[in-house]
Amino acid sequence: MSAAFPAAAVGARRTPDFAPPRAVVALTLATVAVSFAVSAMALTAMGFHYDAPGGGLAAKLHPATWLAVIALALRVALDPRPLRFLAELPRRFPGLALFVAGLAATVFYASRVQAQPMAPLIDSFFCGAVFLVLWDEFDARERLSARRLLHLVFAANALLALGEFVSHRRLTPFVAGGHVILHDYRSTALLGHPLLNAASTGAYVLALRFGGDPSLSRATRLAAMALQCAAMVAFGGRTAIVLVGFFLAAGASPAVARTLAGRRFDARMALAAAFALPLAAALAYVAISGGALDKLAGRFVDDKGSAAARLVLFRLFGAFPLSDLLLGPGQDKLVSLQYENGIEYGIENSWIGLVLEYGALAAVLFVVDFLALFAELWARMGKAAPVLAFVFFALVTSAAALDVKSFEFNQFAMIALVMAEGRAPFARRAAP
User: What DSSP designation does 1 have?
Assistant: First the structure.
């Protein structure tokens, strides 16, 4: 995938005639902050019809989406040659151009032919796509500001999650499928749904582990990773926890093996480990003896039918004729079948969800275009790209993410780009 668009994605970054105005930079950073700090549950709690019946299109799009619209429009309006800027975008971002064309076709088909809402398709991808364009023009100082913002947001999210976990109180009600969930212990914090929290937190941890933000000291990096790993217990996302644990262990294995083989090691890290490991063991003992991990362990033992619900998904295909599967089945019948089969909270597989929502033909077109967009991200993600990509696709395969209104891709794109240690920003010329 990294070689999909080598010339355009890596080497064709243009040197603009002017630096992006401060207003554009500020709006872009605000888009990042709002994308993570204002969840769908928070909007619902504030009375917006964002994820509920009723309301117009304006209320159905996330505030971060509107901020991204304004930021991009301002970037174009303030360019001395706006038409040239727009004309160069397909050359600079061919994967993005292909995705935009495919998304427009899917939105048209879904809204005009299938009479489905267009907001989920727009809202789930727009911020990430626009951020890719605007981020490419940030200089080193602006990128550092974005990294610091992301660290601050994730630290606040983790602390809030742990506070919710201990106090058994949430900042916003846990709402899923239009229902208030009262029996679930998992924290929602700033990001909202526990699975979205777990996915984005896991991506952030792995980005840190595999070189994200080289400006961080080793001690700060380890402390940030430890805080986020503790928060993942509060979110309870089993797939994310297993994947993060596996890649952290795999990443540490070579260093451990070299040390055991007699290679030199950093005495400062050995001293820090001598203090940290007993403390970690003591904290783990207190957490386990106090029952803090009982509910998480219980989810691995009894998942309340979650795994069975994923297997039941395949039965839905047999309920529709081939023509419906190709062009898109009736949504009323699909919803009815979901309730009959105990899948009331959504289809927990993005790829199956796309087929059953829009039909196989539209889904295949959309997935191809989405992979083209993802290739643009891959080219900018540095050495963490294989790990982050594997985790992202594993998580969206095990949950409703790309086929429903969700900010999972938007948040992943921002984490992957902001935390990447990849290419240095371009050299900008001052405005004449």
Answer: -
Strands 175-176 and 179-180: antiparallel
Model-level pTM?
A: 0.84
Give 275's contacts (C-beta < 8 A, 6+ positions apart). Answer: none
What is the C-alpha separation between 167 and 79, in angstroms, rounded? 50
Q: Which of 41, 77, 89, 76 is nearest to 62 (CA)?
A: 41
- The values of phi and psi at residue 196, to 5°, are -65, -40
Q: Residue 239 has which token pair?
A: 């797939």
Token pair listed for 60? 């159905």
The string of DSSP letters for 211-269 reads T--TTS-HHHHHHHHHHHHHHHHHHT-HHHHHHHHHHHHHHHHHHHHHHHTT----HHH
d(CA 15, CA 210): 29
- Count, in order, helices (H) and strands (E) of the chain: 22, 2
Identify the pLDDT of residue 30: 97
Q: Could you tell me if 359 and 328 are in contact, meaning their C-beta atoms sit under 8 angstroms apart?
A: yes
Distance CA 357, CA 342 (A): 18
For the chain, give percent helix, strand, coil, nearest 5. Answer: 70, 0, 30
Between the CA of residue 215 and those of 130, 271, 425, what are the distances in Å?
Answer: 26, 22, 15
Q: Render the burial of 102-125: b for 16+ CB within 10 Å, e for the rest.
A: bbeebbebbeeebebebbbbbbbb
Q: What is the pLDDT of residues 39-92, one digit of tens each?
A: 999 998 888 888 877 777 788 999 999 999 999 999 999 998 999 999 999 999
pLDDT at 4: 41
Q: What 8-state DSSP symbol labels residue 402? A: S
The residue length of the chain stands at: 432
**DSSP alpha helix (H) spans, 38-81:** 40-45, 57-60, 63-77
User: Could you tell me if 108 and 78 are in contact, meaning their C-beta atoms sit under 8 angstroms apart?
Assistant: no
User: Residue 76 is which amino acid?
Assistant: V
- Whether 197 has a pLDDT exceeding 90, the answer reads yes
Q: What DSSP string describes 110-168?
A: IIIIS---SHHHHHTTHHHHHHHHHHTT--HHHHHHHHHHHHHHHHHHHHHHHHHHHHT
What b-and-e string marks burial along 333-372, b requiring 16 or more CB atoms within 10 Å of the CB?
Answer: ebeebbeeeebeebbbbbebbbbbbbbbebbebbbebbbb
